[in-house]
Amino acid sequence: MQQIIYFDNAATTPCDERVAARMAQILATTYGNPSSHYSLGYEAKEMLDKARESVAHSLNASANEIFFTSGGSEADNWAVKGAALAGAKKGKKHLITTAFEHHAILHSMRALEQQGYTVTYLKPTSEGFIRPEDVAAAIQPDTALVSVMYANNEIGTIQPIQEIAKICKEHGVLMHTDAVQAVGSIPVDVQELGVDLLSLSGHKFNGPKGVGVLYCRRGVFLPNLIDGGGQESRRRAGTENLAGISGMAFALELAVASLEDKMAHQKELRDYVIRRILDTIPATQLNGSWENRLPGNANINFLGLEGETILLDLDMHGICASTGSACNSDSLDPSHVLMAIGLPEEMGHGSMRFTFGPQNTMEEAQHLCDVLETIIPMRRAMSCMWLQNENKVRNFGGEGEA
Ligand SMILES: *Cc1c(COP(=O)(O)O)cnc(C)c1O
Fold it and tell me: Crossing angle, helix 39-59 and helix 242-257, to 10 degrees?
């Protein structure tokens, strides 16, 4: 079988072998229910407490501010819908978010709009940033929540969360950040950020899928999303996914312990790929700012092509990448993120995301560029969109054409 080169680490990451081994052991041996009152249960409870302490330590939070969930999507739903319900009790039915959030946020907001809430969707700049002054201007007396993602999952731009949280605090408005792409990839300190709520997900930092966290600052109470037993201090019911939770905590410890090296390595691959594509393949462009960008994210537009074509060609070479958000891969609409930063529709269609992880090598990055340098000119030679554009440039000398 062909060797797989995995450059889709923003969609999910391979589980670290050390994490997988620990999880297998927990599944096989620590099978007690943490709520049970005998030694097997106590052993499980102890392991759960340890994981909570560990996650709290990694984020500079307290253990009683960490609530385990079934992943990033549940944490996002809980933050948005919980804050909306709590706000409505005080007559606050306005929410603020951005136009380029993950669908876990956007679709939660849409659901709330159907229940009579109003939502302001802030537009990012063409470089991919939310301006704190836009957040300040959007806050109303009845604003219940501001939710702005820490790092965008498609273009990797890192938002000024600390400044935005400060504004929210001044106005007495709850602040949530979807930090799913940030935690384990860049330093995240909840005290420094000053946010009230923060979501993260295990499978985005070489941990397991189906497990995540909502950080909830002490004194902030959201109504429950999942009702049932008394787990998670009676705030999120369900028998705990102990192997997943312990595996996630361990993966986060590993990521945080090696963060500087991990970031430097990813940045080296990212910068090599961006620079080489922009240098050697004509009519290409980086989507989103190069500065203040996740170390592992490259998102590039190839004029005159459809991302799906490139995706299939890369797959033939054993290379995994993305045309945008993985959640969008079964839709033909251009990425809402690229539309939000003002890309014309056809450029949105011709964009590719390459995201790098600690397991990737420079040889793999070079191979990606070698393959792109072959397939892009070949596909363009067959593309009506590209040839029409070439003709226009030829006939009109390029005048008036951007
Ligand atoms: C992956 C992702 C999510 C969803 O997390 P899951 O654990 O897959 O539910 C939410 N927000 C962002 C920014 C993501 O990248």
Answer: 30
Q: Is 216 a catalytic residue?
A: no
Q: Quick one: angle between helices 242-257 and 17-29, nearest 10? A: 150
Q: Which of 15, 168, 320, 327 is catalytic?
A: 327
CB of 147 closer than 6 angstroms to any ligand 1 atom:
no
Quote the CA–CA distance of 34 and 47 in Å, as a whole number. Answer: 9
Kind of pairing between the strands at 284-286 and 297-302: antiparallel
Q: How many angstroms is it from 10 CA to the middle of ligand 1?
A: 9
CA of 69 to the centre of ligand 1 (A): 12
> CA 265 to CA 250: how far, in whole Å?
21
| Residue 74 alpha carbon, nearest atom of ligand 1 | 9
> Per the structure block, which two tokens stand in for 130?
């939310």
Closest CA relative to residue 359, chosen from 103, 5, 110, 20: 5
- In a 13 Å sphere around the CA of 19, the CA atoms on its Cβ side amount to 25
pLDDT tens digits for range 299-335: 999 999 999 999 999 999 999 999 964 445 556 678 9
Query: What per-residue confidence (pLDDT) applies to 388?
Result: 85
Ligand 1 centroid vs 266 CA: distance in angstroms? Answer: 20
List all residues 6 or more positions away from 30 whose beta carbon is below 8 Å from its beta carbon.
Answer: 40, 43, 44, 47, 242, 243
pLDDT means over runs of 10, the chain (402 residues): 90 98 97 97 98 98 98 98 98 98 98 98 98 98 98 98 98 98 98 98 98 98 97 97 98 98 98 98 98 98 94 97 65 87 90 97 98 97 87 61 44
- pLDDT for the residue numbered 401: 44
In the chain, how many H helices and how many E strands? Answer: 15, 12
CA of residue 224 to ligand 1 center, whole Å: 20
Is residue 76 in contact with ligand 1, taking CB distance under 6 Å? Answer: yes
Atom of ligand 1 nearest to the CA of 201: 7
From the CB of 201, is ligand 1 less than 6 Å away?
yes
Give the amino acid at 319: I
Pairwise CA distance, residues 113 & 295, whole Å: 35
Task: Tell me, using a 6 A CB cutoff, whether residue 70 lines ligand 1.
Answer: no
Q: Give the distance from CA 105 to its chain's centroid.
A: 11
Using CA positions, which residue lies closest to atom 14 of ligand 1?
180
pTM of the model: 0.95
Q: What is the residue whose two structure tokens read 């000024």? A: 160
Take atom 3 of ligand 1 and give the residue whose Cα is closest. 72
